[in-house]
Amino acid sequence: MVIALGVSGVGAYQLAPSPAEQTVHWREIAWPFPRDGWPAGRAFRCDGACAGAELYIRAKRGFCNCNRGVADDDEVDRVADIDLISPRFAAVAPGEEVGVGELRGRARRYDLDMPDVRHVAIGIAVSRRCDLFVAAAQGRAEADVVQRTALAFLETEGMRTWVAAALDGR
Fold first, then answer.
1. Could you give the count of Cα atoms lying within 13 Å of 18 in the half-sphere of its Cβ?
2. Quick one: three-class SS letters along 34-71?
3. Which residues of the chain fall below pLDDT 50?
4. Considering the domain boundaries, does residue 5 fall inside one?
5. d(CA 60, CA 170)
């Protein structure tokens, strides 16, 4: 019995989220960028494990290759709004395929040249037919933490509903 309790306790400990993952909370902030050719989106700041990361999201309707969607890293570089955060950014690795709800596309990691401290950024571009949904996350946490928490937030029911409405023009 002691062995069974010990094994189940170890399993529960390994499967439990870490304390840092339990303290992730995104709150909406004002859109910080000047107007451009696209409607303003929504912006969020993360408190907790993601060390003040910020996430900027918006729909870009009619701005995607209708046949291929987001097929390569060059397109992520071009559309993901990383340049709004800093015009001086450099990709640090090839992108990877990601999904947000039923939308599919790519995410790519960047280093930002910021005046204060090192910042990482994640550019996400996913598509539905001829429409794009883009997200740019930036912060001082490790890139994998910023990407994982941003994608988890985008997968919440409220965000998936907003994304669908934004892509439908509502």
1. 6
2. CCCCCCCCEEEEEECCCCCCEEEEEEECCCCCCCCCCC
3. 1-21
4. no
5. 13
Residue pair 54/31 in contact (Cβ under 8 Å)? The answer is no
Structural domain range at position 143? 23-167
pLDDT per residue as tens digits for the range 44-73: 999 887 878 999 999 998 877 777 888 899
In a domain, 77, yes or no: yes
The reported pLDDT for the residue numbered 8 is: 42
Task: Look at residue 56 in the predicted model and tell me its pLDDT.
Answer: 97
pTM score, whole prediction: 0.83
CATH of the domain at 115: 3.40.1000
For residues 45 and 93, what is the distance between their CA atoms, to the nearest angstrom? 25
Q: Contact at 8 Å (CB) between 55 and 26?
A: yes
What's the maximum distance between 2 C-alpha atoms anywhere in the chain? 66
Specify the pLDDT at position 130: 86
Amino acid at 116: D
Distance separating alpha carbons of residues 131 and 47, to the nearest angstrom: 31
Taking residue 60's Cβ as centre, other Cβ atoms within 10 Å add up to: 21
Answer yes or no: is 11 within a domain. Answer: no
